[in-house]
Design a protein that fits this description.
Elements: H1 3-46, H2 52-70, H3 74-92, H4 107-122, H5 129-141
Helix pairs in contact: 1-2, 1-4, 2-3, 3-4
Length: 142
């Protein structure tokens, strides 16, 4: 068996779990814990979005992060999180490329967008509920 066939599921899992942890931390610790839901909603309102979008993004990051960690509906969750990253990128695009500029650059959300698209293509990989569901279906069909 070629080496990539044996390592690819673990690489996909590593990417998926890392993304999940980052989304969970960004939604729960940064948005809820640091700024609070009202602060996050206020920030979204201050940059021209409906404040409720701040709550939607917060809970999308938390629920999306948990789903990625668990490997639940990985392809769909990864794809659903792409618009969040595109929105973040659009907020930073006027600041320039690098994140070290005032207001942050757009390279970080652009990179996140790419990793989510890669995860969409790879699927959940190892240690995922997606794989457990597929295995259960195969057993039931046999």
């Amino acid at each position: 068996m070629p080496e990539t066939q044996t390592t690819a599921p673990y690489a996909a899992a590593l990417l998926r779990i890392a993304q999940g942890i980052m989304f969970l931390a960004h939604g729960a610790i940064l948005k809820l814990g640091t700024f609070g839901l009202a602060g996050t909603m206020g920030y979204f309102g201050s940059i021209g979005y409906p404040p409720v979008l701040g709550a939607i993004v917060t809970f999308a990051e938390i629920l999306g992060g948990l789903a990625l960690i668990a490997g639940f509906a990985t392809r769909w969750v990864s794809l659903a999180l792409v618009p969040l990253m595109l929105g973040a990128m659009m907020q930073h695009v006027g600041n320039g490329w690098l994140f070290n500029v005032p207001g942050g650059g757009w390279e970080y959300p652009a990179f996140w967008t790419v990793t989510l698209l890669v995860q969409t293509g790879l699927g959940a990989g190892a240690w995922a509920l997606d794989g457990a569901r597929l295995s259960a279906r195969r057993v039931a069909a046999a």
